[in-house]
Design a protein that fits this description.
alpha+beta; 5-stranded antiparallel β-sheet; 23 helices; 12 strands; extended
């Protein structure tokens, strides 16, 4: 007899491959754990408050380093006046530390700017809404009065150009940062980025580690053209290199748009353009290269942005609130997932059964079984070694029933928990999608197709359990929904009508079909109404002519072409069986070439009608649905419904 024995090298290769897979799985496990731990840390209120406080204080500290014409500038003053409350206090404290650190004795005027602006902003409080120009003019007056006081008291002679620059920057920076804190837009973001680059460029712990170059490289790779130009202007105003950085950043932006074969070449565009400018200008200064390379590398991690959406006024406020709501719901889902119900105390049930059975037993003192009740006896009471089993066995049966009841309650709690988690997840995703779509000002393109839909139905009783609805949805979607209530009569009609109405409202509100169907499944499962309704739904995209057929417990559908009929979809269990298990089936198809989609309820024998007849897809949908029901006959034991869906080009329908 021959044996199939692998060669030694193949065995070693398999062993090595198994080890590699094991190491990979272990690394992925640790990465997932680390990611979850980071997410928990990021969502910690204490850490987030600490990070926000450090960010505000650090921004004031860094802006105090900004200089023009060799003099400190009141940019931190504008940031303090643009903020409010504790934010202004933190920014002011950071600036009060930054001016002495960066300017020494020459920074005492900036220290006064920061201290007075912080007190002024706190005192004004909510009145800034009533008079939005109060703080800009107050900061301008503060800057002018401070410079005049230092000139008269300390005999500091400030050139007129510097004096005028201080006043102008105090007014302009205050208005800029007030706009940034209230309702951001693209222009505000570009200007703030340029100011940040100007300040960072003058915070250089060592020549090759200037953070201004890193920020400029990041903006030129991942930002818009005005942002890149303003970042280069900030570097030029900082006067840290003789190479014209505005031209370098503009060239880097256009170079990244070129069809380069590798992504790293686009990310290295700032460094390439700087080398070219250095050669053209005849200047040898390699200090910006590390920062530009690092900024370009960081730009590769930024998500692609096809266009810049603006947040203005109430739209921006609503978008922020939607994003915060989505984040809160996602955190609620994570916290809900960590809740674990306590285990069932089986020993307590056994002790209770033993005390009831043995408490009044005359042989309890000499009985060894009363202290040896184990879990096995809970499921096999007849195995109990007892002198008087007539007492113990019924109590063990009762304890087992209590254990089953507790287990059922735990299962029901898990179902409730799963349903709540599911809704939190669905609502979080829905709010995020709304926030993403909210600032878009694009006009919807006209639909390329129009729907021709019709349904015919026959009920076994006066109340028909089949409910068919056809209605438009958001974003050029059209839905045809067929809900079949279990059985016939008034109860089936009520279930079908309630399910169809609930699903229609959620779809028209903008919820994705997957979310809607799984939400309805949870609703039926928690009601204990498994199989009360089957769902058959077609979603048609009027722009592309593509369709999706969602089935949950419904009968197979059919696609009718001139060459014949084809069955689509398979029978699945009805909704409402379990919250955790999702059993809906999705079929994708096209209706662009005159195909006809036919949805049937359980009362229609699709095999007998569509396989054995020659139906024409060119017939009107109403006539086609009526013909299908007529051929199905009236001997079925269930309500019968046929819905026919067909697309026509929109221009043909209008003509």
């Amino acid at each position: 007899m021959r044996r199939n024995i692998l060669p030694l090298r193949d065995t070693m290769a398999l062993s090595q491959g198994g080890k590699e897979r094991g190491v990979r799985m272990m690394v992925e496990t640790y990465l997932r754990r680390g990611r979850r731990e980071l997410q928990r840390l990021c969502l910690s209120p204490t850490l987030r408050a600490g990070a926000a406080a450090a960010g505000y204080a650090g921004s004031g500290f860094l802006l105090s380093a900004a200089s023009l014409m060799g003099q400190p500038q009141p940019l931190a003053l504008g940031l303090i006046c643009g903020a409010s409350g504790w934010q202004a206090v933190l920014i002011g404290l950071g600036a009060m530390v930054g001016y002495p650190v960066f300017w020494g004795f020459a920074g005492r005027m900036g220290f006064v700017w920061a201290a007075v602006a912080m007190a002024l902003t706190v005192m004004v409080g909510q009145r800034r809404r009533e008079a939005p120009l109060m703080l800009p003019f107050a900061s301008t007056f503060l800057t002018a009065a401070t410079a005049l006081a230092f000139r008269l008291i300390l005999d500091e002679k400030v050139p007129l150009a510097v004096y005028a620059l201080w006043v102008a920057l105090a007014l302009g920076s205050t208005m800029l940062f007030m706009q940034a804190f209230s309702c951001r837009d693209a222009v505000t973001d570009w200007l703030v980025g340029g100011v940040a680059v100007l300040a960072l460029a003058q915070v250089s712990p060592w020549p090759y580690g200037n953070p201004g170059y890193l920020a400029a490289g990041l903006v030129s790779v991942g930002g818009a053209f005005p942002a890149a130009a303003l970042a280069g202007l900030g570097l030029d105003l900082a006067q840290i290199t003789a190479v014209p950085m505005t031209a370098v950043m503009c060239m880097a932006y256009f170079l990244r748009l070129a069809p380069l074969p590798h992504k790293w070449q686009r990310n290295a565009a700032p460094a390439f353009c700087y080398l070219a400018a250095m050669v053209i200008c005849g200047i040898r200064d390699p200090t910006p290269l590390p920062g530009l390379l690092a900024g370009g590398a960081l730009g590769s991690f930024l998500p692609p942005r096809a266009q810049i959406y603006q947040r203005r006024g109430g739209t921006g406020f609503a978008q922020v609130r939607l994003e915060l709501g989505a984040e809160t719901l996602a955190e609620g889902q994570r916290l809900m997932a960590e809740i674990q119900p306590p285990p069932i105390d089986v020993q307590a049930l056994l002790d209770k059964a033993g005390s009831r059975a043995c408490g009044a037993c005359s042989a309890r003192k000499a009985c060894a079984q009363k202290d040896n009740l184990t879990k096995d006896l809970l499921f096999n009471p007849l195995d109990a070694d007892c002198r008087k089993p007539g007492r113990l066995i019924p109590e063990l049966h009762r304890a087992r029933e209590q254990w089953k009841d507790l287990k059922g309650m735990r299962q029901q709690q898990r179902e409730y928990q799963g349903a709540i988690m599911q809704q939190y997840r669905f609502l979080s995703q829905f709010l995020r999608s709304l926030a993403d779509r909210l600032p878009r000002q694009e006009s919807a393109a006209p639909a390329r197709f129009q729907v021709e839909a019709s349904a015919r139905s026959k009920g076994k009783e006066k109340a028909n359990g089949d409910r068919c609805l056809a209605f438009p949805g958001p974003e050029e979607r059209y839905y045809v929904l067929l809900c079949d209530g279990m059985g016939t009569g008034l109860g089936a009609a009520q279930e079908g009508a309630m399910g169809a109405s609930y699903i229609r409202r959620m779809l028209q509100a903008g919820f994705p079909p997957e979310h809607v169907l799984r939400t309805y499944n949870s609703f039926l499962a928690l009601r204990g109404a498994a199989g009360a309704v089957t769902v058959d739904m077609a979603e048609v995209d009027l722009q592309t002519g593509l369709a999706k057929v969602y089935k949950w417990g419904a009968a197979p559908s059919w696609i009718l072409r001139r060459s014949g009929a084809e069955k689509i979809g398979t029978a699945t269990p009805p909704p409402g069986i379990s919250v955790e298990e999702t059993r809906e089936a999705v079929v994708k198809l096209s209706l662009r070439r005159g195909e006809v989609l036919i949805l049937l309820s359980d009362g229609v024998d699709g095999e007998g009608v569509l396989r054995q007849s020659r139906l024409s897809p060119d017939a009107p949908p109403g006539e086609l649905a009526a013909e299908i029901l007529e051929m199905a006959g009236g001997g079925a034991e269930d309500d019968a419904t046929a819905a026919v869906i067909r697309l026509r080009p929109a221009d043909l329908c209008q003509s």
